[in-house]
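re: ur question from earlier - yeah i can do the single chain one, its not a big deal. heres the input i used so u can compare w yours
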Amino acid sequence: MKLFTTLALATLTVAAGSASAVPTFTTGGTALANEGLVTSVAGATTINFNDGLLPSNYTGAVFTSNHPSYAAQPPNDLTAFYSVGVSDGQITPGVATFSGGLSYFGFYMGSPDTYNSIVFTMGDSSTVMLTGSQMAALGGVSPNGNQSVGLYINAWAGEGAKFTSIAFQSPNTNAFESDNHAYIAAVPEPETYAMLLAGLGLLGFMLRRKAS
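and the output i got, formated as tokens:
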């Protein structure tokens, strides 16, 4: 199985609406036979939808084959894929929710177009939108829906920040197709560890007291 890595072509920084965090977006992934592009970020967990099922923390639709009239698989991807839109079981937006938060999220998308967008909700409930035009610009391609074009988008929440949900949007009769979603869970804040240790200490005290 031949692997090769494509390097990020550009970096985009987008400020959240009311947050101090500044997410960063890049392109670049690793080509994998029959899968198109997958993340090249070490330590990331991948959701490839290959079982044809929608994960419990997602809304949207998973297709196991190409549907040229309304949803096309990303290029060189012969496996099941995730799609949002308004045709045949799709909805828009389709939302992936991660209650503990993520420091990183990536996805492989096909046929970038101006009407595709993705909205990241931050840990402080502010939002950041990445438009189809911005995603295309990151990859140095035109946002014209060319089905032979695929991009791997990498999103970094920023220091001390996290993504809690990701919403894929395609508001017209066409679709926003993606696959090989990848994520890294956010590291809990020091205060969270302190509260956990305090809780464990209190539990230990109560158990000792009960035993005595």
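The CA atoms of residues 102 and 185 lie 4 Å apart. not sure if urs matches, ping me
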